[in-house]
Amino acid sequence: MTAVYTWDVFSTLDGYGSFAEGADWGGYWGKQGPDLLAHRAALFDTGQRMVFGATTFRENAAIMTSGIDPNWLDEWNLRTMRAPATVISSTLEDTLGWPDATIMSGDAVEIVTRLKQESEVPLRSPASLSLNWALMAAGLVDRLQVTIFPVISGRTGTSPILRGAGDFDLELLESRTLDGHTQELVYRPTPR
Q1: Which residues contact 17 (CB under 8 A, 6 or more apart)?
Q2: What is the pLDDT of residues 25-35, one digit of tens each?
Q3: What's the whole-model pTM score?
Q4: The CATH number, out of the four listed (3.40.50.970, 3.40.630.30, 1.10.357.20, 3.40.430.10), of the domain defined by the range 5-191
């Protein structure tokens, strides 16, 4: 059986995955609430293997192991860090204090193809934009889970989540509203 691979990404309504340094949005663009936090924690009620690209892994490890951002104490973030992780990188040589992380160097499509065949648990990749654009193009992303926060960050937004992606048809599998304003949409992408 092949493990399901979910690309899990946060976004503003206008498609940005983060904001410029110095912009005063706060974590989750200041829009987190109890529904979002409980739902995110529940996603980790069953075992999963995290899959990271090098940039996202460096950013997350720096924040999560330093304790500088209070949002990283949210239960779902703690569960993320406790999950086994595969980091696909040709530049990293250290797991940066992340417990149960393995660094794999090589072709991302080959690595994820093998992970999908061998993993006994689903695979989840937070952000890791360029990695997941390549994996979507190769048909390896089974689920695209986009959490859209109710903000527009046209002036301060960085990292457009789909700018480097190809063309895809999307089949809506699930949708939900969290805290009365944040949308989570789960799609099955099919390359065109």
Answers
A1: 9, 10, 11, 127, 129, 158, 159, 160, 161
A2: 888 899 999 99
A3: 0.94
A4: 3.40.430.10
